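Hi L.,

You mentioned the student needs an example of a multi-chain input paired with its predicted structure. This one should do, with 610 residues in total across all chains.
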Amino acid sequence: MAMTSSSIDEVAETPIAAFGLLRTVSYRAWIGGAAAAVAWLGVAWLTAFWPDAPDSDWEYTGHLAIVFAAVGTGLAFTTFAGLRFAAWQRAQRATPWLLALAALLGVWQAVTAKLGLLPMPFFPPPQAILAVLIDDWPRLGDGVFASLKLLARGYLVGAAAGFAVGVAIGWSRAVGYWFHPILRFVGPLPATAWLPLAFFVFPSSLSASTFLIALATGFPVAVLTWSGVAGVNSAYYDVARTLGASRWFLVVKVAIPAAMPHVFVGLFMGLGNSFAVLVVAEMLGVKSGLGWYLQWAQGWAAYANMYAALLIMALVCSGLITLLFCLRDRLLSWQKGLVRW
Amino acid sequence: MVAALAVRQEPQPDETPRRGAALEVLDISHRFKLDDRPLPVLQHISLRVGPGELVALLGPSGCGKSTLLRLVAGLDAPVSGRLLVDGATIDGPDPSRVVVFQDPTLYPWRTVRSNVALGLEARGLLRSHGARVDNALQLVGLSHFANAYPHQLSGGMAQRAALARALVNEPRLLILDEPLGKLDSLTRIAMQGELVSLWQRAGFTALLVTHDVEEALFLATRVIVLSERPARIKAEIVNDLPYPRHRGDPRLAELRHEVFTHLGLDESW
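Structure written out for the whole complex:
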């Protein structure tokens, strides 16, 4: 008796050795994946077969159920694949999140579309947002494109200018003498404070917005590049000088690479700032982009459109930050202990 | 000077003779400013180092040894006095006089190979003389770590890489500022032997700063004992023991006693 029970415990706790193929997979991970798949399929079932509240006509309830069911099926497949391929098992880390998301979507679905507990139109159900994504995608797509174009122009100009100013201040005492006070005095001013002036001075709202985004990006990049260049270990210069390095070599091959970790902190801060200024500029001046779309949706009390735009904006911003992280990890792979995004 | 050359054991056939530079330090004084008051660090230092010699500067810490090396390297200019290499005044850093610092100060963003190539790259010689990089890496035993980053190296390996970075430039005067000071004692003893054999093979003149009496005597042909700050030359001890030397040699013990006496430490003998 005792023998049997202990061997059962062993099978439950350790990887399943009996099946050979499944050696590295524990029951717990498998159960987690299966539970997540069942949860998503459950939300799909609930969406499809629990009738919507009376007096509501959510056209895309069926579509939403299909989306949920697709996610659930995908999870089931991933879990099954995880039994065979080690690479898939990394997805298992997300299991608790997938369960929580399914629960959240279920509750959201229940209290909005099914029970009608939350006031409309402020709290639309998920199928309303899906409807916006499906029906209004040309306008949303244009918005994303316009926003990205404006952001890229402003950010690249600002980052380049901030970098150049930072290196110059950090390197040359004369440049530092003239630029440092300006940077200290003007830099902390939020870029948005220049907005009324910029729209007045610049010939077009597009150039004004580019300027504002560049300003918001440039300040942190300049300050951090400067502090990076100023903080370079002076022994690095001594080494290069005794080896016959020119001043140009000291700047380009010593000061700038040594300052790169700081520069990237500045680029991250600048990117965050640039998002803020982009949205404000689009809301107040530029008649395109996701910020403008948000404003427009709010004006028409189209809250589902607003949520959809927010969702896309979050994806885009997060994607851009991730892109910057990838770039940094590539360029600064020599550093130990990088923060993972 | 002549004696120093004579003790060389069987010179390598490919070695160009008298590659080492002659250094003359003529009545150097130097001071820093500390809280707006002058702080004298070197007083009337004069010394000559012949081509191919390995001279150790020995003195209590903070006495100004490293300052003297910075002057020889041309990183700083003396307040008074002159420094000459082969008769020409030193007026700035030059790749023929390379410093190996106490810290390896490798650039963390460059691989070992690319760190070693630094001097050639800075002077635009990488394309024509790139082969020297691999030779130098081989010389210090780091060929297998050419693509490693500095943070992956041990202290001894990093210091070897720093040595290779200096040797790539084929210096005529190698300036060593406590290059083994931060290594553990075992690595240090091993690298002392390596330094001697590098010096014998390459034939450069070497000026070594150290506060380790045994290291100075084990390595150098001549040991110059400096006083407390402001540094003056207290004594000059010629060590004519042939290489390779043996740490247990009774002559080394005698010399050590002599140095201890000059440093005012003979009570501990």
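You could point out the following to them. The first helix of chain A runs from residue 2 to 13. The mean pLDDT of chain A is 86.

Best wishes,
N.
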